[in-house]
Amino acid sequence: MKNLKKRSGYQWFIEPSEKMRVPFIIFGDDDIIKNLDEKVYEQGTNVASLPGIVKASFAMPDAHWGYGFPIGGVAAFDPDKGGVISAGGVGFDISCGVRTILTGLKEDQIESVKDRLADELARHIPAGVGSTGRLNLSKDKIDEMLAGGVKWAVERGYGTQKDLQRTEENGIASGAVPAYVSDKAKERQKEEVGTLGSGNHYLEVQKVIEIFDAEIANAYNVTLGDIVVTIHCGSRGLGHQVATDYMPRMLEAAKEAGIELPERDLACAPINSSVGKQYYGAMRAGINCAIANRQVLTHLVREAFDKVLPQADLKLLYDVSHNTCKVEEHKVDGKSMKLYIHRKGATRAFGPGHPALPQDLRDAGQPVLIGGTMGTFSYILAGMEESEDLCFSSCSHGAGRAMSRTQATKKWSGREVVKSLAQKGIIIKSASMKGIAEEAPGAYKDVVSVADATEKAHLAKRVAKLAPLICVKG
Amino acid sequence: MRKNWEHYSHTADMGIRGYGASMEEAFAAAAVAMVAINVDPEKIQQEQKVKITCSEQDRELLFIAWLSNLLYEMATRKMFFSKFEVEIKDGKLTGCAWGEKMDLKKHKPVVEIKGISYSDLKVTQENGKWTAQCIVDI
Predict the structure, then answer these.
(1) What number is the ipTM of this complex?
(2) Residues of B in contact with A267 (CB under 8 A)
(3) pLDDT at A400
(4) Which homologous superfamily is B5-137 in?
(5) Which of A42, A232, A270, A351 is the most interior residue, by most CB within 10 Å?
(6) Which of A459, A462, A439, A346 is nearest to A397 (CA)?
């Protein structure tokens, strides 16, 4: 990329030119930048042209080609300066995210029952295309879920009070307006609460294989050899429909407001417009849908463990969402501002002392979870103080694909992938062999270098490395 | 009959493309391409007919609306479709989709489609041949 300049070892930028209002800044090491898809630059600079954008358009070390926004894109908008909210900037899977649950067990305690545990988890967790959850909700009940998030789930017996504190925004996305979510979206969710979905979504039993920061690990109650469970999924059909419903409305709204869109996937509306406000209410309801979904899944995981390992005590470490728009206070040029932060395939990463963190995590900083692939690693990180100033307290979210699904299925068969992972002691449970081939570990970028660059860029600090033992794929 | 649809590569997701002698045929062929991401269309019996209507003045947005409506019908009826017919008049689309109830054992579905993106969205005509394409989010 010819206009790209290096600011420091792990920070690169493109100065504003033509329609860009702010610079485009990307974090990563030399290799990541060298192998980056050209589309990321195009999309990152397009985002920089949107009205009301503050400071810069950012891309995290795991950035890749997305829709409108790059995946790994972060942008903040000021409502008082004509700032926009963008359905494309949040994505189709609203509040797709990751949560990690501590089990209090060590590997030797699960070794002899690993197969049974895998079977039980696969039986308890509805996963894959067409799967339905245990709950069948009427429209009124859906509205309650959309307003209540994790709190709704906990009040119905699907978790504990402590689970609430260990979810971003204490388990409820404020500003959710279920009435702004279409009946079509609610219809799609009726039977999908408590389902994993498919594609890159998964549930993994993992082992802590390395500790990078003993002090923070201690604050997170994570030690070497611990068994944890990680869930990756989102707002299911409801979130997808909310995005589908609002994209064309936002195209209209952008036109009315005289906003020139470099591409239609950047569909957006002024935050203070009627469509902007409605989308915000609907999207926030979508966040509640996603976190409630992960909470119900957590309950199912607890049930499965109860059957096989009743001595386990499953406690939520933390739940992060990585396709969101949140209203947050940030300091810009020494002045505190209330901004609409879009994170599309990027994680909020509040540093130590942040008032939004629960008391028992405040000194250590927010747990950040970076998901890997079936065969590689995942990471627990901690938000760093510096990332506030660097990119509104944001960091990477995963490995990111390096290869298309078509290429992956040409290169591997599902059976081969399952066999080679079995040799490494990893049990895979999936409804679709082709789906496994599409999600083969080799189709993803190297998560180790993503986590490494995330730390070296001062976005989040590595705390622990996790390796998979059991993986339930959708 | 010669295959009138195809998939094309996108790093994270999948591109779909349909061809035809008319815009309507291209829309119908692209719908088969969309279904084929998830299931083999040849495994789907055409037992039940579902009617779909939508309207948009812009033909590319009409293409998005058509596919989004199909996704919705498949998700809520728990059906897969494999045959499509489309009529378009003055920005109004009337379509029919034929298919059957989802049978996980028989159809072996691979992956859910989250949404129809506007990326690489094109509905074009060249030398009498229509093409309709876009990238779908998986």
Answers:
(1) 0.95
(2) 118
(3) 83
(4) Archease domain (3.55.10.10)
(5) A232
(6) A346
Mutate which: A129, A184, A196, A232, vs B, most B CBs within 10 A:
A129
The number of C-beta contacts closer than 8 angstroms across A and B is 109
Could you give the CA distance from residue A136 to residue A192 in angstroms, rounded to a whole number? 8
Are the CB atoms for A471 and A428 separated by under 8 Å?
Answer: yes
Q: Which domains does chain A have, with CATH numbers?
A: 5-402+444-473 (3.90.1860.10)
Which candidate, B83, B39, B93, B32, places its Cα nearest to that of B62?
B93
Q: Does B56 touch chain A (CB under 8 A)?
A: yes
Angstrom distance (rounded) from CA B101 to CA B34: 17
* Enzyme catalytic residues of A: 397
How far is it, in rounded angstroms, from Cα A42 to Cα A262?
10
What residues of chain A lie within 8 A of the CB of B8, using their CB? 406
Which residue among B38, B61, B68 places its CB closest to the CB of A129?
B38
User: Quick check: helix, strand or coil at residue B49?
Assistant: strand
Average pLDDT, integer, range A233-254? 97
Q: Which residue ranges make up each domain of chain B? A: 5-137
Q: Torsions phi, psi of A156, nearest 5?
A: -100, 15
Comparing B2 with A293, the larger pLDDT belongs to A293
- CB-nearest partner of A404 from B10, B68, B108: B10
- Cβ–Cβ of A404/B11 closer than 8 Å? yes
Q: Are A319 and A154 in contact (CB under 8 A)?
A: no
